[in-house]
Amino acid sequence: MTDEPSDQERVESRAHLLPEEAAVGSDDPHAQAEAILAESDIREEDRNAAPDTVLEQRTSDQTVTPVEPPD
Predict the structure, then answer these.
(1) Whole-structure pTM over 0.85, yes or no?
(2) Residues 6+ apart with CB under 8 A from 38
(3) Among 51, 9, 44, 50, which residue's Cα sits nearest to residue 30?
(4) pLDDT tens for residues 1-45?
(5) How far apart (Å, rounded) are the C-alpha atoms in residues 26 and 23?
(6) Per-residue pLDDT tens for 35-65?
(7) What is the C-alpha separation between 16 and 10, in angstroms, rounded?
(8) Would you say residue 2 lies in a domain?
(9) Cα–Cα distance between 71 and 9 in angstroms, integer?
(10) 47 near 66, Cβ under 8 Å?
(11) Is 19 within the bounds of a domain?
(12) How many domains does the chain have?
């Protein structure tokens, strides 16, 4: 058995509006929660799914130009 919450439990938990969301309101918090969680699941499965959020994975010697020692 897993300790992960069911989809319905996740939606119920996320349907409680954050302060920023409550300030502007929501016509359907449950539908909003479902959409947010669906997008989150997609991004979790495919790291390139979100535009402009690609994480570069380089080593330090790929990011710094080596300095030549003086002659």
Answers:
(1) no
(2) none
(3) 9
(4) 567 788 889 999 888 888 998 899 889 999 999 998 998 888 788
(5) 9
(6) 989 988 887 887 666 666 666 677 777 777 7
(7) 11
(8) no
(9) 67
(10) no
(11) yes
(12) 1
Name the residue range of residue 50's domain.
7-63
Q: Is residue 10 within 8 Å of 37, Cβ to Cβ?
A: yes
Q: Give the 3-state secondary structure of residue 27.
A: coil
Is 1 within a domain? no
Q: Is 36 exposed, middle or buried (0-12, 13-18, 19+ CB in 10 A)?
A: middle
What is the Cβ-side half-sphere exposure of residue 8, based on CA atoms within 13 angstroms? 0
Task: Tell me which amino acid residue 41 is.
Answer: D
Residue 69, domain member (yes or no):
no
